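2024-03-11 09:14:02 INFO receiving multi-entity request
2024-03-11 09:14:02 INFO entity count = four
2024-03-11 09:14:03 INFO echoing inputs for audit
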Amino acid sequence: MQTITELDPQLKVFEELESEVRGYIRSFPTTFVKAKDSMMWDVNDKAYIDFFAGAGALNYGHNNSKMKETLIRYLSEDGITHSLDMGTKAKATFLTKFNETILKPRGLEYKVMFPGPTGTNTVESALKLARKVTGRELVISFTNGFHGMTLGSLSITGNSFKRHGAGVSLNHSVAMPFDKYLGKDVDTVDYLERFLEDSGSGVALPAAIILETVQGEGGLNVANNVWLKRIEEVCRRWDILLIIDDVQAGCGRTGTFFSFETAGIKPDIVCLSKSISGYGTPMALTLIKPEYDLWAPGEHNGTFRGHNLAFITATEALTFWETEKFSEDIVAKGLLVDDFLTGLVSKYPELKGEVRGKGLFRGIACGVKGLADKICAEAFERGLIMETSGPNSEVFKIMPALTIDCKTLNQGFAIIEESVKASLTN
Amino acid sequence: MQTITELDPQLKVFEELESEVRGYIRSFPTTFVKAKDSMMWDVNDKAYIDFFAGAGALNYGHNNSKMKETLIRYLSEDGITHSLDMGTKAKATFLTKFNETILKPRGLEYKVMFPGPTGTNTVESALKLARKVTGRELVISFTNGFHGMTLGSLSITGNSFKRHGAGVSLNHSVAMPFDKYLGKDVDTVDYLERFLEDSGSGVALPAAIILETVQGEGGLNVANNVWLKRIEEVCRRWDILLIIDDVQAGCGRTGTFFSFETAGIKPDIVCLSKSISGYGTPMALTLIKPEYDLWAPGEHNGTFRGHNLAFITATEALTFWETEKFSEDIVAKGLLVDDFLTGLVSKYPELKGEVRGKGLFRGIACGVKGLADKICAEAFERGLIMETSGPNSEVFKIMPALTIDCKTLNQGFAIIEESVKASLTN
Amino acid sequence: MQTITELDPQLKVFEELESEVRGYIRSFPTTFVKAKDSMMWDVNDKAYIDFFAGAGALNYGHNNSKMKETLIRYLSEDGITHSLDMGTKAKATFLTKFNETILKPRGLEYKVMFPGPTGTNTVESALKLARKVTGRELVISFTNGFHGMTLGSLSITGNSFKRHGAGVSLNHSVAMPFDKYLGKDVDTVDYLERFLEDSGSGVALPAAIILETVQGEGGLNVANNVWLKRIEEVCRRWDILLIIDDVQAGCGRTGTFFSFETAGIKPDIVCLSKSISGYGTPMALTLIKPEYDLWAPGEHNGTFRGHNLAFITATEALTFWETEKFSEDIVAKGLLVDDFLTGLVSKYPELKGEVRGKGLFRGIACGVKGLADKICAEAFERGLIMETSGPNSEVFKIMPALTIDCKTLNQGFAIIEESVKASLTN
Amino acid sequence: MQTITELDPQLKVFEELESEVRGYIRSFPTTFVKAKDSMMWDVNDKAYIDFFAGAGALNYGHNNSKMKETLIRYLSEDGITHSLDMGTKAKATFLTKFNETILKPRGLEYKVMFPGPTGTNTVESALKLARKVTGRELVISFTNGFHGMTLGSLSITGNSFKRHGAGVSLNHSVAMPFDKYLGKDVDTVDYLERFLEDSGSGVALPAAIILETVQGEGGLNVANNVWLKRIEEVCRRWDILLIIDDVQAGCGRTGTFFSFETAGIKPDIVCLSKSISGYGTPMALTLIKPEYDLWAPGEHNGTFRGHNLAFITATEALTFWETEKFSEDIVAKGLLVDDFLTGLVSKYPELKGEVRGKGLFRGIACGVKGLADKICAEAFERGLIMETSGPNSEVFKIMPALTIDCKTLNQGFAIIEESVKASLTN
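2024-03-11 09:21:47 INFO inference complete, emitting structure
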């Protein structure tokens, strides 16, 4: 078998100089150079369709033309780039437009916190605040939840390999069964309530319940709206803060800006990152119900919480949400994906496939060990970027840019089907 | 007294929409628009000299022309922006240049990890790795150290207000006295060794000792080179990993690229962020001795660890380090600052001032409660941005861009002297 | 309403000098003087039937004549009283007889540890050892389990009031649902296995699973033998140590010496205390499968682990177990209790009663809030000592000495029925 | 070399049936049968002088005649043995006499808690209460402190071997340097205060400071009265509870009933166990200033907290304290020990000996590795029981019963001198 660098001598740089921790480069062994919308090109000018979208950070595709234009203009005019949490015009403009375009039309009132520009930062800030507001320590999370890699976020993340990496015990958290974790007939909220009601259960009243409505890393497990509504009721009954981690599922991925909109719930805290800047540049927000905005100034901080280049593209990205059209398109394209995947599962029973997900956040869980990884590798060979998820990497994940056109989508489908065939015959 | 928004009606946006956690906007109550090198301008076109440098993230000033040019070109050509830890040309170029310009000439051999683009991320990755390598849990940090706001980094940070914000107990860490913490005559390494040698001390053998050579947030406390050398010896004697958190003190702030160069030590892990991208855009590195690069693929990760816009400017920024000139200039300007501050202290004994710091990382600790804050507020009025540090905000901090010209430096000095006078007479 | 001391002026001593933490004296407000077998007498010479048996520490009744005789002889001869873990003849004799009478006939091979003379001490030692043997930290316990009040034991105890008393967070433990916790139709082992099998569940592989086969404090919840067998299988499958906390349920309380005998399981570690000394004097044992006896000398210790007066009576107590007779008697008397309780429940439907327990470890869970406490208070008035258990004190507990004669048992029943009647009519 | 069981075939029982955790039997390889005052006899009728006193649990010697008589009478009359925390006449009598004989004459007002009958139990209860009273989590302890082996007590114990045995991380505690830990010229209270005063020190305001005035296990380190007074002042200044763990140093060991009497301090909580029962039977007390007695009923409990046999002998033991005579005798005998040890050190410079301790709590720290253990082994051969302490077992400890007569004391001295000689010449 060839080594990666025999395939592409440029990769030698990474092998020699970069840490062993690097991951995706092992699945996609090439050196990328350019990208535009749903396409990527490597050093050999080979083109790839992107069904990965930066793990959800590129919902508007690569280097969106309008955002790029705005960004270049801002740079040219020496707009301020870095400002910590000082006031800047770029930030004021973003705040105003976010309020007008996203919050107000949805009847949501949130104070906006800039917690540092990564998903794990918004989660850590949400945990701190929930603990401060309630005076409690415990946070309830769910099986197969993924919330980040710093110690606080990791303590509420399910994956044992990631958890083990902490090197210390991860405390102040309890994992409860996610929707359908115990089969389709068991309502796991009953289970949660049993523990909360019983003063002898060993599970204390938590500061917060945190969840993703669709578990992206955990295997595209979708929480039912009724289940979400019941979780919200549990929170209200026991004065527990409800935190929705919308880092991956938010910003339109499931069809609506916030993933929880169709459930009709109003979380107390919402975590946003990944696609919020629109351009793949680092940015994160923590949205807080005004009555819970009990921070002291500077109680949580971070050097890059004022990344104005991201604010500029983020503001531009919000224009997608000015009408219903964008949302409707996502849903429509999501159904195309669903049709394709459903067809695939019935056509190739050897996949032992189960279609999962919502909106443009979909995939197939394969019942054969190692198969999803194989399909992704075959797809890469054929010019498609796609990743796996789930505790055993058993799900291959169709997660294109929300802006993808149907032609490219169909090209992608064709490559996937070929890859499935190739994987099953080898 | 006027409210902030009466002073500047634009600030209303932040008061209404942004979380109470916002901090610097309270010290610098205006809305910034543009910035170039060492100058910033607000919405009213008022100009400010920047002696703050983005808390160390803007060592090369705002919107450096050459970096800007490179960045705009990259954007125009649709260079890939976001890539997680896939291979990209921008990353390969950075890695190569970093190795050639920084590591090799200093005789350092490190594997480079991209841990997510913030200071706290590199620290969290360093802690994880040290624990993995040694199989131990404890990490020894120092009084008044600052390492970040996520749970792992916070556990080794000294500030009680920040620590309390965690809302949970912070464990697996012990704070030892920093250099000169117990007075000039006490070598605190003796103290540390006493605890390590004695199997009954209650302090276990740690995985790592982590420190900043100059404590930026902690009050500009400078570790002596001899002390640093002894700390390294302690680490070697007990097989403890030495982690230097060079997030604020690194990238030239103290006069050399790494703050520890003059001490002649070779840390096992180095944490870099803030000015590594050169342009104020989020980026961080964890440098690891090859023998300790024991990560499994993906054991630590993060969405924005492949922020190519930052790699592009970071590569450009490294050109500053191709000769000795840049370093010599920093040292020379640092001496100007030192002269000025020393003069100030002797001219205004009411300051009860003590000059602190190294390179362009300097300031005065004022023996009068609240005085440093007052001086900064007066300076802001007069068009100078400067912040305080130290457990009681007792130090005002002169931290201009390393690229500042002498004229601007002197203008800044003049404003500071006026501000000192005004503060002492009110 | 009268204060306690108006009822009995002697109680003033306790109110004035003893801490507010005192508990049982509030339920049984008198001063006891003498006790013999199943009877107790107070300062006013009022006699009480004892259906409490020192919370399980007096399985052989008060001041058993043969043990008393042996003890007085030992004292008279200046037998050594206190010996830490030095060798003594009293200990050698106990070890030999325990092996011959208890372990060998049951086909059990255990090394015997003397961990300090209380229940919480044996549990703490078991947790330490399981963690040492496996190199893992987590311990799985069960809802409504009770294991003791020191920090390690408390971390695996369910009761929220007790847990809260710790004043710090209780870590390294996860509470799983006990048998029938989710209703009679749900096998909670499925639930436990789901978490163990799934590497994304957030629950790590534990060092040990610890449980009581009958939860004495938790409300007399009895684990089914099939459930216990499945738990043992889970332990074997995942190399988890099985710890049975037989502190309250052991020493014959459920009908056999060990409570787990009828389930046919062989725990890796067994915790014994309470009635092991036979005389109500402090003593505890930790039984360890020889292959797991990996302690270093003195790795766990305690001043009173060599309490020879307890060894003397403990040895005498073992004579009860030389034939099957004693066990058969317990079972027979247990059925009498069961008959009585079942009758009570059907005769007094207002109790909303559910009979619980096994052997002479039985009681009624009352569906009416506060009723069980009331019945116990009425019983005390009428000369019967009986306590409640369960998360809301909803169970009154019939737990007489195993040696009680049928006449006294029936007198007790009569008092209980009167007390039930009085409680329901008030 | 002979195995232990070749020396004494009776020891086989322990090797076969008892856990490897057994410790003292390895230093004193024989089987003891009888004991009286300061003498012990083994199965071979060999007599031993006891300079160990049950590690401080036998301050009144073995099987004191008056206590024995009282105890046998109580047993004969069927006085109640086991009562949890119900009221009993034996307990009332003890409480009254303890108040009259100990507390009142010393001007101390404490509520008395019975926390379970071991040292670690009283310490765990003290920690819980201090945390409850202050709402803080951290407890400050000292280097080489020993407080017990359950998880809470272990977290404030210094010994790394014992700590490691926990198998989990030990949190919520910080070890500060004990008196003279950094040499005779450094007042370690300065160090402690520096950390408390500095809000950036990384050490939070603690709930309590806990210490032994003489560290028995830690190597007979004696805290100076001035140092103790300063510690008390620190506690008052910062509203920190002062807990004196007098489990080993209390009950007269240092010359006064409480070890802290000569320092003139009034701790907020005092932990007593070991010799409080007087007879080597398990008992412990937690003394609490009335204003801090904020327990809810049953918030801390334990089966054997009502061990009336111990109350009976404990009451008898208090008669020793009715006059000053007993205390004066201890001091006088302590000086004899001191004279002997001082002489030994100067006569045998090869010992590199340093005399340590106070009252009848004394010993010699040997500067030669392994020597103290050797001397103890030689002494055992010659019929004297004596143990080592200190982080490296470098101290041999003279800790006879307080009631020892001068003749026996001198016989012991003679054996020690012979043992020293033998150890030095081998």
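2024-03-11 09:21:48 INFO post-check: Residues 352 and 367 of chain B are 5 Å apart (CA to CA).
2024-03-11 09:21:48 INFO post-check: The mean pLDDT of chain B is 96.
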